Amino acid sequence: MWRFFLVYVFCAFTLVRQSNGQANEYRLPMTTVPESYDLRFEFKDFNGVDNLTFSGVANITIIVVESTDVVTLNLRDLNVTDVTVAETTNDWYRLLSVNECVYLTNDERFEIRLFRNIPTSRRLLVSIKYIGSIRTDMTGLYLSSYEERDTTKLVLHCYYYYDNLYGVYLRDIVVLTKRYRWFVMTQFEPTYARRAFPCYDEPGYKTEFNISVVKQSNQIALSNMPIRYTEYG
Ligand SMILES: *[C@@H]1O[C@H](CO)[C@@H](O)[C@H](O)[C@H]1NC(C)=O
Ligand SMILES: *[C@@H]1O[C@H](CO)[C@@H](O)[C@H](O)[C@H]1NC(C)=O
Ligand SMILES: *[C@@H]1O[C@H](CO)[C@@H](O)[C@H](O)[C@H]1NC(C)=O
Ligand SMILES: *[C@@H]1O[C@H](CO)[C@@H](O)[C@H](O)[C@H]1NC(C)=O
Q1: Contacts of 93 by beta carbon, 8 Å cutoff, 6+ apart
Q2: Where would one find the signal peptide in this protein (predicted)?
Q3: How far is the CA of 226 from the centre of ligand 4 (A)?
Q4: Of 68, 98, 140, 155, which alpha carbon lies 20 to 30 A from 232's?
Q5: Quick one: 142 exposed, middle or buried, by C-beta within 10 A (0-12, 13-18, 19+)?
Q6: Largest CA distance in the chain
Q7: Which atom of ligand 1 lies nearest, measured to the CA of 59?
Q8: Distance 227 CA to ligand 4 centre (A)
Q9: What pLDDT shows up at residue 25?
Q10: What is the CATH number for 107?
């Protein structure tokens, strides 16, 4: 009875703390919001061992809702190779200088710090190029496989030598070589999207996405949304 009571009080305190905003250190600052994403993922020929990386481009159109000089996104285990930030309207496009980019690794965040404050209501186009890994822990973009039904029969001829007979026997040995098909799947439930692309990885931010997949000719790309167009290179 006593134990139950203590637990109850503790929970009540936790709830009060959260409603006072104490939990916000784990949330993205609400100074910018995403308007749309244009993502690009490029894969090489991969199997279960080689080429388990991909290159990505995340173009995020964001709106500044509270004047700031920092754009903070969620990101984990991605190596950013290039960042550009531009201010856009329907009529013009102007590149802004980026002061520095900082990985806040423990918070799974990435900060893009600009040289000057951006006023409220401005629209920014943030373009981030990066390298990511095809993961093996079933989160983000992860590797999976299945065994092909028609396994290849490989017949090897082997010589066996028996000492006591001084004879050589020829035997057939059948080796079934298992052939695997490799694929990459997504697991973007919170908080795993940030392992595949830099983003506002909180359920409150709902936006539209365009997604491009650059694949090898022997690979297949599948989506649960209609294809807008296909280009052949
Ligand atoms: C991202 O934005 C850059 C700069 O505007 C552009 O050159 C590039 O084509 C865009 N990439 C994607 C995938 O939209
Ligand atoms: C790795 O990717 C490169 C470029 O697509 C390709 O030439 C190479 O064969 C790939 N390696 C394997 C083991 O698939
Ligand atoms: C990112 O960089 C780290 C440190 O240099 C390295 O260990 C890791 O393999 C890189 N990841 C990718 C996907 O290139
Ligand atoms: C997606 O791309 C089309 C052009 O192909 C563009 O009209 C549309 O605005 C884009 N949407 C997003 C969310 O980037």
Answers
A1: 86, 87, 125
A2: 1-21
A3: 13
A4: 140
A5: buried
A6: 93
A7: 1
A8: 12
A9: 77
A10: 2.60.40.1730
**In a domain? residue 128:** yes
Q: Judge whether 17 lies within some domain.
A: no
- Please identify which residue in the block is written with the tokens 């439930």: 189
* Residue whose CA lies nearest to ligand 3 atom number 5: 79
- Domain count across the chain: 1
Give a yes or no: residue 176 inside a domain: no
- Find the ligand nearest to 49 CA: 2
| C-beta of 186 in contact with ligand 1 (< 6 A) | no
Amino acid identity, position 128: I
Highest mean pLDDT among 19-33, 146-160, 188-202: 188-202
Q: Return the ligand number nearest the Cα of 54.
A: 3
**Domain-located, residue 36:** yes
Distance (Å) from CA 46 to ligand 2 centroid: 6
Q: Which atom of ligand 2 is nearest to the CA of 46?
A: 14
The DSSP result for the chain, as a single string, is -HHHHHHHHHHHHHHHHHHTTGGGGGS--TTEEEEEEEEEEEE----SSS--EEEEEEEEEEEESS-EEEEEEE--S-EEEEEEEEEE-SS-EEEE-EEEEEEEGGGTEEEEEEEEEEPTT-EEEEEEEEEEE-BSSSSEEEEEEEE-SSPEEEEEEEEEEETTTTEEEEEEEEEEE--EEEEEEEE-TTTTGGGTS-B--STT---EEEEEEE--TT-----SS--------
Mean local confidence (pLDDT), 124-138: 97
Binding site membership of 215 for ligand 2 (Cβ less than 6 Å): no
Tell me whether residue 191 is exposed, middle or buried, using C-beta atoms within 10 angstroms of its C-beta: 0 to 12, 13 to 18, 19 or more: middle
